[in-house]
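User: quick one, sequence for these tokens?
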């Protein structure tokens, strides 16, 4: 699918992250397919999904653009969102409209740098849309230089450098949307409608919300914690 057509589909909308790890009650591809269908029924413009199996199950239920990732843990790296070319190639096989990967400056498995990895995959898959999951302004600017199609604020507050940063980081979103020539997707820490509206005061392409919509255990825990305080 052409880049601008994908951008038009998600522009100004809500991308719902439908993910569940093995430790979570809703784990399972069939469940994620149903979750994506519920998101579409609610008006979502796109889906973010983890693993080829989940993406295939979601494809059977909805025709929305998909941001695909693979979360993989390696003992020699803190990077876990699509960390190596192996994960990229697995995602290519199921053809998500966008593939997202960690675009921080952290060393990847096998001591590989982002520059080395992305130069290779950009050359091999020139028509694939790639989203840079960033933690800070510098990550976003470097991602643009490397040739990413989209920058996301996904990893803000999740790296050692940005730990403790309040999210959503409106200042980061504002700086990136002001200085980048490529689109920005805001992601991370959006729990309230007011926060979503404030994010959309900036020139973002779209917004991803996950936990606040698709993780009932975390949603329940948040309300229960409010009672106990």
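Assistant:
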């Amino acid at each position: 699918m052409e880049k601008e057509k994908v951008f038009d589909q998600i522009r100004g909308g809500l991308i719902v992250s439908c993910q569940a790890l093995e430790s979570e009650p809703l784990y399972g591809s069939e469940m994620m397919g149903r979750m994506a269908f519920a998101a579409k029924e609610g008006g979502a413009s796109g889906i973010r999904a983890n693993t080829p199996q989940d993406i295939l199950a979601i494809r059977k239920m909805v025709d929305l653009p998909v941001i695909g990732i693979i979360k993989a843990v390696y003992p020699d790296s803190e990077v876990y969102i699509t960390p190596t070319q192996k994960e990229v190639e697995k995602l290519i096989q199921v053809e998500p409209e966008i593939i997202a990967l960690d675009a921080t400056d952290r060393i990847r498995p096998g001591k590989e740098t982002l520059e080395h990895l992305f130069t290779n995959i950009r050359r091999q898959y020139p028509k694939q849309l790639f989203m840079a999951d960033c933690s800070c302004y510098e990550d976003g600017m470097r991602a643009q230089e490397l040739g990413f199609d989209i920058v996301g604020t996904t990893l803000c507050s999740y790296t050692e450098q940005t730990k403790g940063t309040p999210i959503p980081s409106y200042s980061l979103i504002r700086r990136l949307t002001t200085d980048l020539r490529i689109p920005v997707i805001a992601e991370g820490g959006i729990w309230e409608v007011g926060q979503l509206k404030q994010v959309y005061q900036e020139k973002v392409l779209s917004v991803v919300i996950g936990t606040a919509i698709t993780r009932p255990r975390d949603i329940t825990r948040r309300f229960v914690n409010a009672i106990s305080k």
